[in-house]
């Protein structure tokens, strides 16, 4: 397959849409190739099923216009950064060869999210190893950025915030595809879970003088080749 510019690693189907949906849409509009690898099916959940979740994921994938999406089928609710899981994800990185990996923010209440971040960071290192039986050629993804799909009520400091004002409606439509997670069995009284997600995007937009935005963190410094991007040029 052709290398991806961007690969989002999501603990469960819907995490990519929540944390990076607008960025994926914006990146596609700018001609970049984008993909998602879901680590688990996300099931069981109170109102979901494997069949429903697969339909919802397919609908969201179409709305996001993804170039590639796969599911590793790792265990939901008991995700761990095992050597077997690391091997599988390192193989994905070697085959898709993304320039940027998006991972969940490292501090969270959900054990699957914490394990996912540990797994991603370890698999990034393993992907570059030679003399292995991994698929593809050795490859070290240049950068990991961390998206906010956080269950804790915390306010981490992002490295940067990306304007998604033009993409917010499509992002919310993609998230809304997951009816079993956000609509079915829930009292639709304000604020709904979808209201909360949209309002958080509104808040981050406010921080940069835009209507809506998505925040991203980085463990490593990010360099600029000039100041023009900061001037809106």
Could you characterize what this model shows?
By secondary structure, the chain is an alpha/beta fold. It has one domain: Rossmann fold (3-Layer(aba) Sandwich), CATH 3.40.50. It has 7 helices and 7 strands, in the order βαβαβαβαββαααβ. The protein has helices at 15-29, 50-64, 83-96, 111-126, 168-176, 179-182, 193-207; strands spanning 6-10, 34-40, 68-74, 100-104, 143-147, 160-163, 213-217. It has a 7-stranded mixed β-sheet with strand order 3-2-1-4-5-7-6, sandwiched between helices. β2, α2 and β3 (68-74) form a beta-alpha-beta unit. It starts with 5 loop residues before the first strand and ends in a 16-residue tail after the last strand.
In short:
The protein has 233 residues and is α/β, with parallel strands linked by helices.
* CA-based shape: globular
The major beta sheet can be summarized as: 7 strands, mixed
Radius of gyration: 17 Å
Strand order of the largest sheet: 3-2-1-4-5-7-6
CATH class categorisation: Alpha Beta
CATH topology-level name: Rossmann fold
Throw out a few tags for this protein:
233 residues; single chain; 38% helix; seven-stranded mixed sheet; 16% strand
Q: How does the SSE layout of this entry go?
A:
Blueprint: E1 6-10, H1 15-29, E2 34-40, H2 50-64, E3 68-74, H3 83-96, E4 100-104, H4 111-126, E5 143-147, E6 160-163, H5 168-176, H6 179-182, H7 193-207, E7 213-217
Parallel strand pairs: 1-2, 1-4, 2-3, 4-5
Antiparallel strand pairs: 5-7, 6-7
